[in-house]
Amino acid sequence: MFESIIGSGLVQAYRETEYRVHGDEAFTLKVGQASPALAAAHKRYGVDCSAYITAWNPLGEDHEIAVNTQRNAELAAELAQLSLASIEGIEGIGQHPTSQQPGEASFLIFGMTLEEVQALGESWEQNAIVWTGANAVPQLIMLR
Questions:
Q1: Residue 41 in contact with residue 134, Cβ under 8 Å?
Q2: Which of 115, 113, 135 minimizes the C-alpha distance to 42?
Q3: 94: left (phi over 0), alpha (psi -120 to 50) or beta
Q4: Can you list the alpha helix ranges (DSSP code H) found in 35-113?
């Protein structure tokens, strides 16, 4: 098993975060809890996996909103080049339910394998990503 260099408190915060997907059919992903709405989205997109990712706050360090917004715009451009179906970060927000910190604009990406999204998350210097397989149970995947 992968041992993370991230402190247990921050890992727990990631586990408790609500990964909201807005858009036509809004729903919230929670680590370790099956999501019938995500299973339906997988079916709609004809995939058996998805990932929830952001470019905000690289290496877990807080950055100004303008910097984070620019990083997410660059991530959006990269995703567009990959021609992946996604629900864009403007409509997705990852936020801890009791935190006063602003939520992080994010992307729900369909059809990206675990290995592909791990590489993507690492390239954007993320501590973790959320990945879901065919069972539609989101998993927290630590990258550091």
A1: no
A2: 135
A3: beta
A4: 36-45, 65-81
Residue 98 has pLDDT above 50, yes or no: yes
Provide the β-strand partners of residue 52. Answer: 108, 130
Please tell me the total number of residues recorded for the chain in this structure: 144
Separation of alpha carbons 55 and 59, rounded Å: 10
| DSSP states along 99-121 | --SPPEE-EEEES--HHHHHHHH
The reported pLDDT for the residue numbered 83 is 72
Count how many Cα atoms sit within 13 Å of the Cα of residue 114 in the half-sphere of its side chain.
10
Element (H, E) at 142: strand 139-142
